[in-house]
Structure formats: structure tokens, C-alpha cells
């Protein structure tokens, strides 16, 4: 495990208006680190999903809140933490509903709920804690020459 | 960080051509334009996604909502011109199974 070199933090209003700004910033950092195009796109979606969750769920109407996005840059990975100070949503019940829509009829589809599933699918490691507000921590590894052992759901490309 | 929606109508066929990003900020605009079109029986709503540079689950949610609405009102919803990136999130989430997606590949020689 290598040590952190740089840390970048953003604190933006929990409004849809700022989701794109966060996404662009994280995209710039990932690009700077040398992630491939597709990986950067994956990170952009994952971060947007986490921030959008806060925007949609963390604060009740009329209550103004912030969302904090921290980004730790390591030699071999990017660790992004998205934190709100709003009321926690029930992570367990949401996790149970995670998953692709395979085999479901159109009536059973829910319009939300795909966000956490996408985060889980697109990032290498995801941790969620909901003690005081919600913290989503997600990691993407830089795949340079060696095959990473930490790969969760996204399988490494077969050699040869 | 914006979304442009161009609408054309020929009889009961409405074509929406999207350009830009579909996220939590822009999705309400898309919903506002697309949903009412699906609420009239016989309407054919065709959405051209070739200009979409970014889409996440908020955008997917709008299409799921429009699909449900088209089933409820006997209209139809077709998507076309998806870029590889957009197609990927429809695939990951399994929505390619339930959506009517034209699979023509534009401007790419085989």
C-alpha cells in the first residue's frame, strides 16, 4: 500500500446545478493521473451518481445543505469520498434493491435506484457508511502494466 | 454542461434530437419535453442520442419513466444513435432488454 501524495477537496451546495462542476473537476484529476478514457468516463458517472444521491435524498425541501467531495490521489489509485451531513437514507434497504433490471417487467422498473448499482459496477472498491449522514467512498485503480489484485466487478482484460 | 433538445414533428412521429449532457441538472428539461409526447395514444417518439456526450442514472430514469408512460398511453418510444458510452450504461443496467433501441451504427465503416 503506497501513501497518499495529494488531497483535493470541494464543498459545493447540494443542488443539481453543481453536479457537472464536480464531475468536470474529478475528470480533470483522473486525466492528470493517467487514467484511460473509458476509466475516466466510469469515474465521472460514479462521482455524479454519489453527488446526485446527496442532492436528491440528503436534505429535506427548504433545508440548504452542502456536499463535500474529497479526492485522495495515490500513485496507484484514486480514492473519492462523497459526504453529506443530511439525514441518512436506509442503506440496507437500498442495497437490497440494487441490481440490473434483468427479467423485470416494465411495471417493476423503478426510476431511481440505479445510481448505487452503477457506482458499485463502475468502481473497483466501494464502501458506504451511514452513521452521521452518508459517506460513500470509492476507489479506482490505475491499471498500468501489472494486473491489479483488487479488481472487484470489472474483470481485467484477458491477457493475450 | 448543458442539454439541447431539438424537436421535429411529422404527423404523429416526434423526433427529439439531444445534444450535450443528461444529468441531474438537465434531466428535468428532457422529462418536461419528452413525457407529454408519450402521453398521447398513437404517438411515436423517436429520440436521437447521437449528440449525447454524457448520461447517468438520472437520465436513464427519465427514459424508464417515458417507457412506462408510453405503455400506459399506447404510444411508442424508440431510441437511436447511441454512442458506445451511452450504450454501455444501458447495457450495464439491463435497460437494453426493455427499451426499443435501433442498432444501426452511423458513420462507421465495417
Automatic annotation (TrEMBL), chain A:
EC number: 2.7.11.1
Catalytic reaction list: L-seryl-[protein] + ATP = O-phospho-L-seryl-[protein] + ADP + H(+); L-threonyl-[protein] + ATP = O-phospho-L-threonyl-[protein] + ADP + H(+)
Domain of life of the source: Bacteria
Annotated coiled-coil segments of the chain: none
InterPro entries: Anti-sigma-factor_SerPK, HATPase_C_sf, HATPase_dom, RsbW
Record GO terms (molecular function): protein serine/threonine kinase activity
The keyword Nucleotide-binding belongs to this UniProt entry's keyword annotation: yes
Domain Histidine kinase/HSP90-like ATPase: from-to ranges: 12-140
Family that this chain belongs to: Belongs to the anti-sigma-factor family.
Job description of the protein: Negative regulator of sigma-B activity. Phosphorylates and inactivates its specific antagonist protein, RsbV. Upon phosphorylation of RsbV, RsbW is released and binds to sigma-B, thereby blocking its ability to form an RNA polymerase holoenzyme (E-sigma-B).
Name of the protein: Serine-protein kinase RsbW
Source taxonomy: Bacteria, Bacillati, Bacillota, Bacilli, Bacillales
From TrEMBL, chain B:
PROSITE patterns linked: STAS (PS50801)
Pfam families, alphabetized: STAS (PF01740)
InterPro entries linked to this entry: Anti-sigma_ant, STAS_dom, STAS_dom_sf
Ranges annotated as spanning the membrane: none
Segments forming domain STAS: 3-110
SUPFAM superfamilies registered for this protein in UniProt: SpoIIaa-like (SSF52091)
Domain of life: Bacteria
Key words, A-Z: Phosphoprotein
Similarity section: Belongs to the anti-sigma-factor antagonist family.
Protein name: Anti-sigma factor antagonist
Amino acid at each position: 500500500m503506497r501513501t497518499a501524495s495529494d488531497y483535493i477537496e470541494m464543498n459545493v451546495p447540494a443542488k443539481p446545478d453543481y453536479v457537472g462542476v464536480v464531475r468536470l473537476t474529478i475528470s480533470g484529476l483522473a486525466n492528470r493521473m493517467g487514467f484511460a478514457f473509458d476509466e475516466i468516463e466510469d469515474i465521472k458517472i460514479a462521482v455524479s451518481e454519489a453527488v446526485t444521491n446527496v442532492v436528491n435524498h440528503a436534505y429535506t425541501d427548504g433545508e440548504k445543505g452542502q456536499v463535500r467531495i474529497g479526492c485522495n490521489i495515490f500513485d496507484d489509485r484514486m480514492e473519492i469520498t462523497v459526504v453529506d451531513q443530511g439525514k441518512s437514507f436506509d442503506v440496507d434497504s437500498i442495497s437490497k434493491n440494487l441490481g440490473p433490471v434483468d427479467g423485470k417487467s416494465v411495471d417493476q422498473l423503478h426510476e431511481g435506484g440505479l445510481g448505487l448499482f452503477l457506482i458499485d459496477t463502475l468502481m473497483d472498491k466501494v464502501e458506504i457508511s451511514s452513521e452521521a449522514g452518508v459517506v460513500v467512498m470509492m476507489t479506482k485503480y490505475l491499471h498500468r502494466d501489472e494486473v491489479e489484485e483488487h479488481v472487484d466487478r470489472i474483470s481485467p482484460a484477458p491477457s493475450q | 454542461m448543458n442539454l439541447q433538445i431539438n424537436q421535429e414533428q411529422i404527423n404523429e412521429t416526434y423526433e427529439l434530437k439531444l445534444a450535450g449532457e443528461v444529468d441531474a441538472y438537465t434531466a428535468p428539461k428532457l422529462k418536461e419535453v419528452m413525457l407529454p409526447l408519450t402521453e398521447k395514444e398513437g404517438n411515436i417518439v423517436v429520440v436521437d442520442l447521437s449528440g449525447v456526450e454524457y448520461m447517468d442514472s438520472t437520465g436513464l430514469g427519465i427514459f424508464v419513466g417515458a417507457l412506462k408512460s408510453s405503455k400506459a398511453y399506447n404510444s411508442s418510444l424508440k431510441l437511436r444513435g447511441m454512442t458506445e458510452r451511452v450504450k454501455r450504461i444501458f447495457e450495464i443496467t439491463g435497460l437494453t432488454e426493455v427499451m426499443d433501441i435501433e442498432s444501426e451504427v452511423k458513420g462507421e465503416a465495417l
